[in-house]
Amino acid sequence: MNTIEWTDALVLDFEPIDTQHHAFVDLLARAQQAPDDALPQAWTALVNHAVAQFEWEDEWMQRTGFSSAANHTLQHRVVLNLLREGIAQARSGQLAAVREMAFELAAWFARHTQTQDAALALQLRHHPALPARGGSSPRAPAQRGGRAPR
Ligand SMILES: [Fe+2]
């Protein structure tokens, strides 16, 4: 099983999402390569990032009336539930299960990025309330009192 890497196939040409996705890939790669004693911490860092990233996407889907928001948000919720189970597994020493989950997550992430997130990026890129790529980033939830993607 190969370690996930950031590739052009994952680029959506929308900086706020690409930046978050690049961080996700880096954290997932770190978890995939972590020695046993570092895996619980690496997995927890990945899950914390995923929580913030998915919250950011969910919020912008709502704010811009994204047509498939319900399905996209449901995918986030299901995956987050599994990732949180992975934290418990990692902390209880079930490391093989977490390593398997890490590689399945990489495959899911590529599919999700190229379908659901690509559609969202297209919507956000053309949304009048948001600046075009190259301008300043859309206001992150943190700037309005919410949580920002990390
Ligand atoms: Fe997404």
Please outline what is shown here.
This protein is mainly α.
Topology:
Blueprint: H1 15-33, H2 39-63, H3 69-91, H4 95-125
Helix pairs in contact: 1-2, 1-4, 2-3, 2-4, 3-4
Fe (ii) ion is lined by residues 57, 72, 76, 112, 116-117.
What does this structure look like?
This protein is mostly helical and 150 residues long. It has one domain (13-129): Four Helix Bundle (Hemerythrin (Met), subunit A). It is built from four helices and no strands. It has helices at residues 15-33, 39-63, 69-91, 95-125. Helix 1 (15-33) packs antiparallel against helix 2 and helix 3 (69-91) packs antiparallel against helix 4. The longest helix has 31 residues, at 95-125. It starts with 14 loop residues before the first helix and ends in a 25-residue tail after the last helix. 31% of the residues are buried. Bound molecules: fe (ii) ion. Residues 57, 72, 76, 112, 116-117 line the site of fe (ii) ion (FE2). Residues 57, 72, 76, 112, 116-117 line the site of fe (ii) ion.
Q: Give helix and strand order, one letter per element, not per position.
A: HHHH
By CATH, the architecture is named Up-down Bundle
| Share of helical residues | 55-70%
Count of folded domains = 1
Q: Give the helix/strand class.
A: mainly alpha
Quantity of strands, as a count? 0
Task: Count every helix, treating DSSP H or I runs of 4 or more residues as helices.
Answer: 4
Strand content: under 5%
Mean pLDDT score, rounded?
Answer: 89
Rg computed from alpha carbons, rounded to a whole number of angstroms: 16 Å
Output the CATH topology. Four Helix Bundle (Hemerythrin (Met), subunit A)
CATH superfamily: Hemerythrin-like
CA distance, first residue to last residue: 27 Å
Bound molecules: fe (ii) ion
Task: Give a quick account of the main beta sheet: strands, pairing sense, barrel closure.
Answer: none
Rough shape?
Answer: elongated
Poorly predicted sequence stretches spanning 5 or more consecutive residues: 132-137, 140-150
CATH class descriptor: Mainly Alpha
